[in-house]
What does this fold into?
Amino acid sequence: MKNLLRFDYFDKFLRIELPSTSGAPRSLETWVSCVQDWNLSPFVVLNPTRTVLIGRDILLELKPQVLLDFETRQTEIVTAKKPMPARPSKLPQKKSVSPKRRRA
It folds into this structure.
């Protein structure tokens, strides 16, 4: 069982691109870990229909719409949403300063 869970991987810098609802693709250039001999890896042995594993940080950056089909146990990345405009940061409120009272 120990050999079943063993796999080799290498790191690679690449560009990940998804289509978006706005028409302009959303992309990210980042380091990823690529599994060597993917089709023989435990990821595919445990789930023969698996084609990719993608990390949460990439999903948070690209903000895709993801379709989860629990009946067929399939996940599909449909498209990346249009980027949301940045929210204005909350500006610190000015403190009201009362004038110093003069002693009589």
Remarks:
- The longest strand covers residues 9-18.
